[in-house]
Amino acid sequence: MAVNSLSRFGVPGLGAARQPVLQPIFVNRWRILFYGFGIDGGNAVYDLTRQVQSVSLPNLEFDEHTLWSYLSAVYVTSRAEWSSVDITFLDDISNTARQFIELQAARQQNFREVTASRAAENYKFEMDISILAGGGTAESDNDPNIIRTYSLSGCFLKSINDQQLDYTNSGPKTISVTIRPDNVLVRDFTGTEFIAGVSHEEEITTRRGTQSTGIGSRIAGVSLNNASHGTASGGVVFGGLTLSGTLTF
Q1: Do 159 and 61 fall within a single domain?
Q2: Rounded to 5 degrees, what are φ and ψ at 15?
Q3: For residues 51 and 133, what is the distance between their CA atoms, to the nearest angstrom?
Q4: How many Cβ atoms from other residues are within 10 Å of residue 10's Cβ?
Q5: Structure pTM?
Q6: Does 2 reside within a domain?
Q7: Can you give the residue range of the structural domain that contains 222?
């Protein structure tokens, strides 16, 4: 009988765990859907979706503030910002992709009438960038062919870049656009947001937390706010020390 060496693949972990790497996502299996792009209150047709050649995924950056202290510095954040995304379309001979891009730009600012939109809500649109498994359908959020979806809302066109014409280049012409979203939510293969189970409501309503640094752990029943608080029945564990009953600070 052959030796099963597959169980020895992968880097060693805790508890004698040693398994091969998980199946990766492929960068060529994806799809973009546009909602309200170029037309008021409607969905851009499939012709726009199938003309997409490449897209960058949104990146998230938190701002950083330095709190200077006696002999050290602490860093905190107060706000986050999503990056813009770049999309490249194939410029088709029916002008389908170009027409939708022109219509969206005109919703933001009409260069023929020399007018602009009254409010941003009148021209912003939404997009879903879905990573696919390789199947032939993707009809709903819970479709087995959808692995992950980036839902971009509050989007507008930031720039439109036409590829130059060149006698020495016989390749297809493209149009590149940069899109700025206000917010991005990432959902799993069931359509559930990854952050659905996270809430700040409990720490705010219980006034939990006063320090600018820490390890981020949640210590039930204990709050440093000059008051007495009871712990859970099992006590609260700090490293190897278990505290039970009522703690007064």
Answers
A1: yes
A2: 65, 35
A3: 20
A4: 13
A5: 0.82
A6: no
A7: 201-248
